[in-house]
Amino acid sequence: MTAKKGKFIVLEGIDGAGVETHGKLLTDHLRNKNFKVERVYYPDYEGPIGGMIHNYLHSCFDFSAEVQFLIYTADFVKDKERINKWLKEGKVVIADRYFSSTIAYQSIQGFPLKKSLQMAEILELPKPDLIIYIDVSPKVSMERKFKEKNSLDRNESNEKLLKTVGSFYKKLAKNKTFTEWVVVEGEKTIEEVFEEVKASLPSSLK
To answer: Is 41 helix (H, G, I), strand (E, B) or coil?
Structure first.
């Protein structure tokens, strides 16, 4: 795997947790501190793989947990060369969700966690230095998404799934699965949550 000098930070959470909001805030914050920052988003709906994921989420067709895992993982693999390049250049890479999302969502649908981690090794996916999980309840998740848009996709509208995946995320964080994790309370004000996000950063970024 490519040696790296930069930092790779992933923001995670169920839908409506504020991942995109805090990804932008963190990017701006670090740039203001003169760090060179790159940002990636998953799913990458502007790319061909993201288009397939979008159609799946909006129930245009169904995929087994195994097929979901392969498609979502392909979305990360397509970017691994540029992420490694940025890290080698000493940049900070901020990801709005990443392979950790796939570990959570596809594991609860039956794809074995052990196989997920083995595939990450085989494919040499860049490993984050830290995953910041923004914790909100399914109720808050759905309320926020309804305010944002009136039509929810199959994951956003499934309260039972959101509850299950939220619990699984916290299990991954507790066990430090894949890399280091920090859990922050996501139901406070944006300002309060972002203070927790900043406080959780590695010392080299503070």
So the answer is: strand
